[in-house]
Write a structure and sequence with these properties.
single chain; mainly alpha; 12 helices
Length: about 290
């Protein structure tokens, strides 16, 4: 491959990574939903500083709110992480696989998305823990930890980028996967450092996340259901629809939409049956009463 072709592929891949980042930014709504469950307030902007006035209140009050927020983070973000890991390739293909985006590009972009997903829980939870420090009027600790995260992310990403760049799929190389893995590892280091320092400030450790095993089990069960649905949908397309032309181009988007919907609904139904987190049955009853 000559230099011009390699430069063109690098630019093309940068565009794909930008799209993946846009997809990741849409997950911010998930974190906002979880954060709203902290005592009925979203700890952002003004309400964050309203909570900071509770510095003289008992540490147990702040601790309880942080634990509740972390539970909500896990409820919404853990299935998102597992969904990206299991169905990331299907999602990428459904959104982008057309025109210049080739089928051989999907594994590389999926690798980047999956690598970032590994740190999604830690990154979301760190925002909650940082808010706890703000409530205690300690902005220095999360700032110092953030510096460590950036340095660690760059260092690990630099070390992993070159070995991964030796591998490729089509014309795209896996180097950015190493950078994404560095970011995820640094996110978990930041999470545990914040958790450790918050223990010192509160005088006691945060409790283990309630119902974490059920959330993880429900996410995995929903992923199995989604995978089975994906197999049957692809079998249906192969038997009923032509592989080329207009109808052939609909296979990836339709498959992705059906799989995501089945995975998400399965998870919410299972969590409702387990009696954990947000209740879809209660929401449906409320909607019926309103209508």
């Amino acid at each position: 491959m000559n230099t011009d072709d390699r430069n063109f592929d690098a630019v093309r891949f940068s565009v794909y990574l930008f799209r993946v980042n846009e997809l990741g930014r849409n997950l911010g709504s998930i974190k906002n939903i979880a954060l709203r469950n902290i005592g009925g307030e979203e700890l952002d902007g003004v309400s964050r500083w309203e909570l900071s006035r509770q510095r003289l209140a008992a540490p147990e009050v702040l601790k309880a709110k942080i634990e509740k927020a972390l539970g909500s983070i896990y409820f919404w973000v853990m299935p998102s992480t597992i969904g990206f890991l299991v169905f990331g390739g299907t999602i990428i293909a459904g959104i982008y696989q057309r025109g210049e985006f080739l089928s051989t590009d999907v594994p590389v972009v999926y690798g980047v998305l999956a690598a970032y997903s590994l740190g999604l829980i830690a990154s979301s939870a760190s925002r909650v823990l940082s808010t706890g420090f703000y409530a205690l009027r300690d902005s220095k600790t999360p700032a110092r930890v953030a510096y460590i995260r950036v340095i660690l992310s760059l260092s690990i990403g630099f070390l992993l980028m070159f070995p991964f760049d030796e591998m490729q799929s089509g014309n795209l190389h896996y180097g950015p996967v190493g950078l994404a893995l560095g970011t995820s590892v640094a996110a978990w280091v930041e999470y545990w450092m914040l958790r450790y320092h918050l223990k010192s400030n509160l005088g006691s450790s945060l409790s283990k996340i309630k119902d974490l095993a059920r959330i993880f089990s429900g996410s995995c069960m929903a992923a199995i259901i989604g995978y089975v649905v994906q197999v049957f949908v692809k079998m249906g397309f192969n038997d009923l629809m032509p592989n080329e032309g207009f109808f052939g181009s609909l296979e990836q988007p339709i498959t992705a939409a059906i799989v995501i919907l089945s995975f998400g609904l399965s998870y919410l139904i299972l969590m409702d049956l387990f009696g954990v987190g947000w209740s879809i049955s209660r929401w449906l009853r409320t909607l019926k009463e309103v209508s």
